[in-house]
Design brief:
elongated, Serine Threonine Protein Phosphatase 5, Tetratricopeptide repeat, 74% helix, repeat, 22 helices, 401 residues, mainly alpha, CellSynth/LPSAsmb/PSIAsmb
Amino acid sequence: MNSPRSLSLVPALLLSLFAIALFSGPARAAIPPQARQALHAAHRLMDEKQFTEAVKLLREYMDTAQGNVDAEVYLVLGGALHQSGKKTEALAAFKTGHTAHPDNQYLCLNTGVVLYELERHAEAGGFFEKAHSLQEKPAPDLLFQAGSAYYLGEDFQAAARVLTSLLNQEAKPRKQWVQLTIHALIEAKRPAQAEAMVLRFLNDHPDEGEYWKVLARLHLDREEYAKASAALEIAHSLAAPTRQEVERLANLYAYQGAPLLAAATLTRTYGQNPTPEEAIKVAALLASAGRTAQAVTLLEHHRSNPTAALEAGKALYRHRKFEAAEAAFRRILESADNPEARFFIALCAWEKREWERASREFRRLAGLESHRRRAAPYLVVLEDMLAVRAEIDGIDAKRTR
């Protein structure tokens, strides 16, 4: 099971764009008169959708400003550039402003927003994380946004760190937060923490079948096959599994040496009237568990299918029921020539120590390109054996004269 990178859990950008409202009170009073005048004019132009003119006005002010440019100027400049569709220039404005005013939460936040929009997610995560640290009041959504951005940027270690921190701070974390944390921990190769988080999640949401599958995957990674099987059974009981999922579970049971359980798992999905291909899969499991008669009976329902009929004969052969096996192979030849059936007829003769008949059958197969190599070793042995027998028979004949 490959871990699903559940991008559906990553939220759309939840942050409001942009924080460019005019400051008031002491912060507003600290803005120089020329800056206030430029900002007022720029806001009026932006209200009229004249973003290019607003950008030009602010840049002219910045070129003539003495001393540090106020944070709000960078905010409004970046906002005007963004609204005119110039996201790269908006990013540059916010970044420059953030460098000049590193403690301004709005410049930090807006830098992250534009980076996120430009799909520079891991970088955005860093700015969201810092913006969270600059908040006066707790802002868990912002911290989740930081973890989500790191995740999208495939910085899974950072995503796991931030999201785990978020969950540790919240007594009742949201379901989506826990889900994304699980996937971040898996991608960060921290399986023990991921399993603990999955169990915590399933304790609160036991009907979430997908996360029973996630738990199964974690068990499989540690080769805990019985635990993985149990988790998958729970998942399948909560929602109808796909055919592929059922077959994967059956393979897991077979790998654990439980072929009958594997066969029962497939039968639950295939039903009482499986297709020939399905019957062959179930029969192979039954035969490997020693249920030869049951396997053959299942395949006999599809004797008109050459592959199923051949598998029925092979099942009998493997369990040393050579007479019944040969009869099954000969029935196949009644409808059409089948070199594989002939090969097993030769093998049955070999097992029954009917050397001359076996030799005839293998010689016939030696003339076929598809079976020449398989028949050759048997023919070498048979020819030597028959030659020795002929020599012994000759000696015996001389003695009796």
